[in-house]
């Protein structure tokens, strides 16, 4: 069964080019393309879409706002596709439920892998995107709100920190000398305590200074 993809971008050249590229992969079916976030939300509400590939800057409704409505009102998984100068939207996009944040300058294979990863329940955030978040937060003076560390065990805090550094479960396993299954259990515990939904949000949670 093919992964059904909706492309939302106000640049027709990028929109149609992405459609042509993605349709070359037999596992994908681009079901439609739209001009803005509102059209994306409406389409996902009325049609069966697995992945919504959203630009950030669009008229009527941007990709960050569309992400929120798509997550709240549909089963579609939003994947943000952005450019280097859109980093101010990253935090809001993840808080709104974006399952991935990818840069437009990636090669087709990287975008393909990201779409498949998000479809299979993973989250995708490039190191360069996490670096931009860290850079922004270091310059910000608004991260005074600190979470009570007593909510977490020492092991959970260690895992949260490694997730924020971009480590996979396999890499965390090697670092802490515990099994991947045990790590998954710790992550589930952290998600339960924080009310977050996925590991990318855990990374943002840590990087905002709420967990030191």
Automatic annotation (TrEMBL):
PROSITE patterns: HTH_LUXR_1 (PS00622), HTH_LUXR_2 (PS50043), RESPONSE_REGULATORY (PS50110). Signal peptide: none annotated. One of its GO terms (biological process) is phosphorelay signal transduction system. It is found in: Cytoplasm. Its main location: cytoplasm. SUPFAM superfamilies: C-terminal effector domain of the bipartite response regulators, CheY-like. SMART domains: HTH_LUXR, REC. The keyword Coiled coil does not apply. It comes from the Bacteria. Residues 145-210 form the HTH luxR-type domain. One of its GO terms (cellular component) is cytoplasm. Residues 4-119 form the Response regulatory domain. One of its GO terms (molecular function) is DNA binding. InterPro entries: CheY-like_superfamily, NreC/VraR/RcsB-like_REC, Sig_transdc_resp-reg_C-effctor, Sig_transdc_resp-reg_receiver, Tscrpt_reg_LuxR_C, WalR-like. The modification 4-aspartylphosphate is found at residue 55. Keywords: Cytoplasm, DNA-binding, Phosphoprotein, Transcription, Transcription regulation. PANTHER family: TRANSCRIPTIONAL REGULATORY PROTEIN LNRK (PTHR43214:SF40), TWO-COMPONENT RESPONSE REGULATOR (PTHR43214). This is Fructose response regulator of fruA and EII fructose/mannose. It comes from Bacillus cereus.
